[in-house]
Amino acid sequence: MKTSSIFSITILAICVSFLGAIDGIVVRVLSSDLHPFLIVFYRSLFGLIIIIPIFLRDKSVFISSYQYLHIVRAFLKILALTSFFLAFKSASLSDVVSISFITPLLIILGSILFLNESPAKNHIIFSLIGFIGILVILKPGFDYIPPALYWALIGAILSACIQLILKKMSDKDKPDTLTVWNLLCTVPLAFIPALFFWTTPSFEMFILLTIQGLIGVLNMIFITKAMSMVDISYLAPFDFVRLPIISTLAFVFFDEIPSASTLLGALIIFFSSFLISNLASNNKK
Predict the structure, then answer these.
(1) How far apart are CA 218 and CA 215, in angstroms?
(2) Which of 5-14, 42-51, 228-237 has the lowest mean pLDDT?
(3) In sequence order, which residues have a C-beta less than 8 Å from that of residue 27 and are 6 or more positions away?
């Protein structure tokens, strides 16, 4: 692959991490007044409104080879977002993001096991190292584990499943198609649980929800475009850029300071993901 292409893919991956960190801050603000199901629904609805011009410009976005998988992906997305939003509401933002780092690790393993991307003999050892990082963050048996962090763990596992499905779908569907179909399926599905917690947002909330919708659309476009250009194992480690960004923002807006165990655990998980990714890339070559 050309150097210019690698540079473009890297920029896309970093943008996804940056936008993801901003999203976490917005969720923390919104979750004090809105239930996570409502945030998921409004986020998807505003995202759909933002991409309506795509419908008018290019009707081919409706042509997909994976109609049923879009529904499955949308359902998993609702569960994953709700889990993360429940975690962001109560737990330290740095802790939640650190727990979510298990997603890149699971993505790398899943891409090796299910997508035939660069099998590596030592991936089990490095995976165990990554799970040790999770234990360092959670400190089971030594400290009280906030229930919100379990929601973060569930969200991370579901997110890995979604990304693996997305990678498979990107083989035949273009990024615009994946984005449009995902929102078309997510909005009606998310509306059902949102009804039970219905609250009309204030004007300020509408602004933040619109920003969230834009972030969601941009993230889907960026990640699907990147996945169509390179192996998922190359992209996964860039997710770790979110930690310094969200830690800085959490300190500025909420006076949160990440604990030493959080930083150490995140570093261990990054180390394991980096090693697995390098092994996969070397085997590919």
Answers:
(1) 5
(2) 228-237
(3) 39, 84, 85, 88, 89, 212
Tell me the per-residue pLDDT of 112-145, one tens digit each, with 9 for 90 and over.
777 666 545 566 676 677 778 777 877 765 666 7
Q: Which amino acid is at 184?
A: L
DSSP designation for 230: S
CA 108, 112, 117, 120 dihedral sign is positive
Q: Cα-flanking dihedrals φ and ψ of residue 133, to 5°?
A: -60, -40
CA–CA distance, 165 with 120 (Å, rounded to integer): 21
- By 3-state DSSP, what share of the chain in percent is helix, strand and coil, each rounded to 5? 80, 0, 20
Find, among 52, 23, 31, 34, the residue nearest to 212 by Cα.
23
* Rg of the chain on CA atoms, in Å: 18
Indicate the Cα dihedral angle 59, 12, 28, 251, nearest 10°: -160
Higher pLDDT, 90 or 239: 90
213 Rama class: left (phi>0) / alpha (psi -120 to 50) / beta: alpha
Take residue 177 and report the two structure tokens written for it.
């198609």
Per-position b or e across 157-196, b if 16+ CB within 10 A of its CB: ebbbbbbbbbbbbbeebbbbbbbbbbbbbbbebbbebbee
Q: For the whole model, what pTM was predicted? A: 0.77
From the list 7, 247, 234, the residue with the least C-alpha distance to 117 is 234
Q: Which two tokens stand for residue 129?
A: 């190292």
Collect all residues with Cβ–Cβ distance below 8 Å to 207 and sequence separation of at least 6. Answer: none
Question: What are the sequence ranges of the domains in the chain?
Answer: 3-284
Neighbours of 214 (CB within 10 A): 16
DSSP state letter for 201: P
